[in-house]
């Protein structure tokens, strides 16, 4: 804590108490140093897109355009086993994105966008903010819709020509949408250790 | 301990099987000292300087005071984090694990605090970095580092643990034999200083309908997690200092969220947006990652609070027993719910247990050190520790944990850890 600044602040409180009377002092006890945030301040820092589509931007794309973008921007890291064996630990490194449907909970469990991710909008939310890995946020919103469409199409969830935009994307239901149980605030009884 | 060869151990000093001793034993023996009797010196023929035989560092002045102190040259390169090399030349996450077996006490040196980054460590300029609070608030506000410095701060000791810590113990058929920073090095303890998040939220004026806060970082993945509003209003802070100095870049310089006791990934580093809302964002790091796959095909989501857990750091598989005799078994215990109340230690694979000494002051949601004397007679042993927190949560056996959740959970492994000691003093990780 900056002792000097705080002391100065306390003097200000005292001064305002003298000027405005006792009723003001209790309200003024809390230090307030936040500055008003403008919409531009917020837009620069806020990238969250919600499963219900909140905060999805304008723009649109299909898997057709997404296929080319994927080849140029994604394929170097994201291989597609078993056709393209990956030496990487799928939990640790670049994710396997396709396949694995119905394997969660089995010995051959393969968690991919198609087999594991519960919400379609999360795909857009993550890919836009974080990909391509070496150049995140370097594409347009329509290009990110196209890549999202490609990932969903390659997982057999939408058609190749289905247009993804802020209205259609959140309506896409993922195969594993019911696969999660909340452990907050408490882990369900059946998964607790005895 | 006047004569190790003839030291007699009374059977009544034993508090559990296979040599676990009363802690009084160490206290008593520490009082005894070995007298060193100097031999009578012979008459001298020629006088030499009195420093004859002294080391150079005693005979010559050393370096001037450095502006920023460093470890001994003899420690450099020895005491370090375990950083796995990128697999196949690429990596989408990077982890540095704390060398718990080389450290004592409960505070991890800042440079040895574990780190996991998913998009590398950003080089954030504190003069232009700001955090905004917006969404379901009366007044959207922003703060830079200088603004936050004006508030009264809180300083607390907290552990931080990645929920992937000890993940290899879930499914790996054979116990991992890397030194223990591979299995347990994703936990560390620090003293953190910052502004309570509730102070900033109150200033912005949070709607009574708010339920979650969506935190986003300023790294190149804009890492994002949802934090329950009740946690944010309880003990979360925006931390600026770690162990008395500004947070290191790998820990979120110049500001990070700190959610005490929660899985590390929720304490978003390089924090730049806190969006107050009524629903979680379901980001990649709370759906695709940091969800715990169960044996029935379901996955636990928002398993935020870290479980009660402990591990013996000495002896461990990095430290061999060179000879029979008295040792101190010591380790760390922690719970995301509160304080550690008890740590039991077994030297016979869990057949018998004795209470270890829990070293105070015990802080809530912080690493707590335990210790107990152990007489190793050269017999095989299996050493285990089992922690209990103030809420009565008991660290489970590996068998019990796997029975409850299967082997694929990947995250939140917290079972009792076992070290076997063979007759030659070699220590190995075993499942027991």
Write the layout of secondary structure elements.
The complex is a heterodimer of chains A (194) and B (432).
Chain A: H1 3-20, H2 22-27, E1 35-36, H3 39-45, H4 63-73, H5 120-130, H6 141-154, E2 180-182
Helix pairs in contact in A: 4-6, 5-6
Chain B: E1 14-16, E2 20-21, H1 24-31, H2 56-59, E3 82-83, E4 94-97, E5 115-117, E6 130-135, E7 141-144, H3 145-149, E8 154-161, H4 168-171, H5 181-184, E9 187-196, H6 197-204, E10 212-217, E11 224-228, H7 229-234, E12 237-242, E13 245-246, E14 256-258, E15 271-277, E16 292-293, E17 299-301, E18 309-314, E19 325-334, E20 340-346, E21 354-355, E22 357-358, E23 368-376, E24 381-389, H8 398-405, E25 418-421, E26 427-430
Question: Can you walk me through this structure?
Answer:
The complex is a heterodimer of chains A (194) and B (432). By secondary structure, chain A is mainly alpha-helical. Chain A has 2 domains: 3-34; 63-171, Cytochrome c-like domain (Cytochrome Bc1 Complex, Chain D, domain 2), CATH 1.10.760.10. Helix content of chain A is 35%, strand content 3%. Chain A contains 6 helices and 2 strands. Chain A has helices spanning 3-20, 22-27, 39-45, 63-73, 120-130, 141-154; strands spanning 35-36, 180-182. In chain A, helix 4 (63-73) crosses helix 6 and helix 5 crosses helix 6 (141-154). Chain A is globular, with a radius of gyration of 24 Å. The two termini of chain A are 46 Å apart. Mean pLDDT of chain A is 85; it is low at 11-26. Chain B has 432 residues and is mainly β. Among the domains of chain B are: 130-297, Sulfite Oxidase, Chain A, domain 2 (Alpha-Beta Complex), CATH 3.90.420; 309-430, Immunoglobulin-like. Helix content of chain B is 11%, strand content 30%. Chain B has 8 helices and 26 strands. A 5-stranded mixed beta sheet of chain B has the order 7-6-15-10-11. In chain B, strands 8, 9, 12, 13 and 14 form a 5-stranded antiparallel beta sheet that branches. A 5-stranded antiparallel beta sheet of chain B has the order 21-20-24-25-26, with no helix packed on it. In chain B, a hairpin with a 5-residue loop joins strand 6 and strand 7 (141-144). The two termini of chain B are 34 Å apart. Residues 1-7 and 30-39 of chain B have low confidence and may be disordered. At the A-B interface, helix 1, strand 1, helix 3, helix 5 and strand 2 of A face strand 6, strand 7, helix 3, helix 6 and strand 15 of B.
């Amino acid at each position: 804590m900056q002792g000097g600044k705080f002391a100065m602040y306390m003097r200000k409180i005292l001064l305002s108490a003298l000027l405005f009377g006792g009723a003001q002092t209790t309200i003024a006890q809390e230090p307030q140093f936040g500055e008003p945030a403008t919409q531009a301040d917020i837009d620069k820092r806020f990238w969250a897109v919600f499963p219900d589509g909140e905060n999805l931007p304008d723009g649109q794309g299909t898997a057709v355009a997404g296929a080319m973008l994927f080849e140029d921007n994604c394929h170097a890291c994201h291989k597609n086993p078993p056709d393209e064996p990956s030496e990487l630990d799928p939990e640790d490194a670049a994710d396997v994105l396709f396949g694995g449907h119905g394997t969660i909970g089995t010995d051959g469990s393969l968690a991919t966008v198609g087999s594991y991710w519960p919400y379609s909008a999360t795909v857009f939310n993550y890919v836009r903010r974080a990909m391509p890995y070496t150049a995140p946020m370097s594409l347009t919103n329509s290009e990110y819709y196209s890549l999202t469409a490609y990932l969903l199409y390659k997982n057999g969830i939408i058609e190749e020509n289905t247009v993804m935009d802020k209205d259609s994307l959140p309506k896409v239901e993922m195969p594993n949408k019911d696969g999660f149980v909340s452990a907050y605030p408490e882990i369900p009884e059946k998964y607790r250790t005895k | 301990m006047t004569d190790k060869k003839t030291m007699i151990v009374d059977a009544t000093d034993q508090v559990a099987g296979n040599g676990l001793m009363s802690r009084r034993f160490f206290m008593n023996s520490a009082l005894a000292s070995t007298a060193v009797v100097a031999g009578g010196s012979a008459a001298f023929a020629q006088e030499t300087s009195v420093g004859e035989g002294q080391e150079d560092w005693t005979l010559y002045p050393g370096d001037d005071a450095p502006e920023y102190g460093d470890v001994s040259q003899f420690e450099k390169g020895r005491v370090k984090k375990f950083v796995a090399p990128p697999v196949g030349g690429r990596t989408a996450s990077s982890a540095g694990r704390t060398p718990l077996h080389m450290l004592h006490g409960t505070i991890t040196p800042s440079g040895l605090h574990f780190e996991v980054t998913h998009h590398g460590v950003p080089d954030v300029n504190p003069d232009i970095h700001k955090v905004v609070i917006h969404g379901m608030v009366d007044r959207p506000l922003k703060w830079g580092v200088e603004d936050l410095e004006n508030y009264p701060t809180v300083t607390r000791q907290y552990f931080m643990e990645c929920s992937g810590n000890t993940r290899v113990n879930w499914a790996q058929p054979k116990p991992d034999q890397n030194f223990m920073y591979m299995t347990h090095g994703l936990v560390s303890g620090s003293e953190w200083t910052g502004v309570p998040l509730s102070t900033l939220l109150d200033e912005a004026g949070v709607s009574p309908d708010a339920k979650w806060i969506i935190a986003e970082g300023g790294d190149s993945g804009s890492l994002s997690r949802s934090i329950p509003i009740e946690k944010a209003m309880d003990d979360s802070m925006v931390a600026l200092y770690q162990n008395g100095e500004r947070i290191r870049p790998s820990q979120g310089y110049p500001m990070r969220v700190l959610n005490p006791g929660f899985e590390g990934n929720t304490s978003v580093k390089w924090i730049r947006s806190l969006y107050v809302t009524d629903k979680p964002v379901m980001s990649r790091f709370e759906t695709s990652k940091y969800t715990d796959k169960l044996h029935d095909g379901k996955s636990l989501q928002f398993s935020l609070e870290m479980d009660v857990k402990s591990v013996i750091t000495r002896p461990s598989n990095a430290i061999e027993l060179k000879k029979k005799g008295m040792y101190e078994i010591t380790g760390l215990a922690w719970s995301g719910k509160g304080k550690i109340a008890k740590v039991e230690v077994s030297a016979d694979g869990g057949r018998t247990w004795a209470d270890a000494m829990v070293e105070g002051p015990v802080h809530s949601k912080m690493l707590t050190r335990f210790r107990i004397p152990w007489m190793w007679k050269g017999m095989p042993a299996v050493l285990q520790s089992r922690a209990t927190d103030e809420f009565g949560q008991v660290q489970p056996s590996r068998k019990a944990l796997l029975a409850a959740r299967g082997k694929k959970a990947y995250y939140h492994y917290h079972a009792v850890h076992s070290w076997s000691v063979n007759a030659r003093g070699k220590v190995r990780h075993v499942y027991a």
